Amino acid sequence: MDYPTKSTPLNAPIINILERRWSPKAFSDTELPLQYLESLFEAARWAPSCFNEQPWRYVYAQKSDPKRPAMESLLDESNGWAKQAGLLIVSFTSPTFAKNGKENRHAMHDLGCASGYLVLEATARGLISHQMAGFSVDKANETLNVLKEFIPGSMIAIGYPGDPQALPEKLRVREAAPRTRNKSETFSFKGLWM
Length: 194
Description:
By secondary structure, the protein is α+β, with helices and mostly antiparallel strands. The protein contains six helices and four strands, in the order ααβαβαβαβα. Helices cover 28% and strands 14% of the residues.
């Protein structure tokens, strides 16, 4: 199935990959080839971070992975559609610097940047992705055997496009709805905020 497209009403030109990327919910259950996995995490590797700390960590499972049911168990009921995706990832970050143990107040920012690179790499490869806050953050470390020092960020579904008709009606409607975003002047201010 081709990459699902949506009209993107732009107010200024942006690079094509940013214009194409959105967050579908209709996934095929086809697993990703190993070289795609390697490229996704390589893209995340090259994201900028405070003091080049690279505080992000990712735990992932493809459909056939024996640990996949545990990862799926973390999903909120409203995100059950994500179980269809070929790949699920849970992102984590360290809130302290490895070099000195001091607080890294930029850790979540750095994780978000790395995950942004990862999903853009997915888009470049014709894969779809959807980042989710709707998962059991309080159970993620224990379920996935992650050190308690790391903080969960988001869960990410990645895979090949699926058939939107397979989604429940409410989600089909959302899948077909036009893309909307706040105008840049609502969040960017020259010199002073307002």
